[in-house]
Design brief:
By secondary structure, the protein is an alpha/beta fold. The protein has helices spanning about 20-30, 45-55, 65-75, and strands at about 10-15, 35-40, 55-60.
């Protein structure tokens, strides 16, 4: 999708709890193109990836905390 949109230097926040989300998280890590976050009820592999890469694991229903964190990081980067 980023290629189709002609995004040359992508930065993505990937939030998810499943195997398909994990694949996107791994791509983001390999391309140094963002950060990953997962809810605490995620599959063990997703949780492991989230902890090992960016340490962003959140309580069920608390995704807003991660979104605010990503917003703040973006503001700092600007």
């Amino acid at each position: 999708a980023l290629d189709v949109l002609d995004v040359e230097d992508p930065f993505a926040l990937v939030m998810g709890d499943s195997k398909s989300d994990l694949r996107v998280m791994q791509w983001v890590e390999e391309e140094n193109a963002g950060i990953a976050a997962a809810p605490e009820h995620s599959s063990p592999r997703v949780l492991e990836h989230a902890w090992d890469t960016d340490g962003l694991v959140f309580d069920e229903g608390a995704a807003d905390e991660i979104l605010r964190t990503a917003w703040a990081l973006n503001r700092l980067a600007e």
